[in-house]
C-alpha cells in the first residue's frame, strides 16, 4: 500500500531530503540542512549575503549620494573618496541620484552578484 504524504498549512518540505517540517524551521531536524528563507513578495528590504540592504543603499544614493555615502556603505571606499573630493561640484549628487534609481530597479540577484561579497 502506498501512503499519501500531505503537508499541513503550517508545514513545508525540506529542500534537501523532502521531509515535512515546520514552515518556520531554519534547519531540517531529519537531515540537518539549513533551509532557505521564504521568498518575500516585496524584496526591497531584502539583504544580500553580507548583510547589505538594497533599499538602504538606494536611499543613501538618492539623499546623500553627493557625499558618496552609498559607496562607503557598499564597500567601495575609493569611489566614496572620489565623491567626497568632488562633492562641491554637485556632479556626484546628480550621479548619486541616478545610481539610487538604478539600485531600486536592480534585480536582487544582480545586486547580490555586484555588492553581496564585499
Describe the structure in your own words.
There is one protein chain. 41% of the residues lie in helices and 5% in strands. By secondary structure, the chain is mainly alpha-helical. It folds into 2 domains: 7-38, no CATH class; 43-115, no CATH class. Strands 1-2 form a two-stranded antiparallel ribbon. Helix 1 runs antiparallel to helix 4 (91-105). The protein starts with 10 loop residues before the first strand and ends with a helix. The model has no long low-confidence stretch (mean pLDDT 85).
List the helices and strands and how they pair.
Blueprint: E1 11-13, E2 20-22, H1 54-64, H2 69-73, H3 77-85, H4 91-105, H5 108-115
Antiparallel strand pairs: 1-2
Helix pairs in contact: 1-4
Question: In a nutshell, what does this entry contain?
Answer:
The protein is mostly helical.
Strand percentage lies at 5-15%
Question: What is the 3D shape?
Answer: elongated
Mean pLDDT across all amino acids: 85
Question: What letter string, H or E per element, gives the SSE order?
Answer: EEHHHHH
The SS-based structural class is: mainly alpha
End-to-end gap:
54 Å
Number of domains: 2
Provide the gyration radius in Å: 21 Å
Percent helix, as a range, is 40-55%
Residue runs with pLDDT of under 50 for 5 or more positions: none
Q: How many strand elements?
A: 2
User: Strands of the biggest beta sheet: in what spatial order?
Assistant: 1-2
Number of helices: 5
User: Tell me about the biggest sheet?
Assistant: 2 strands, antiparallel
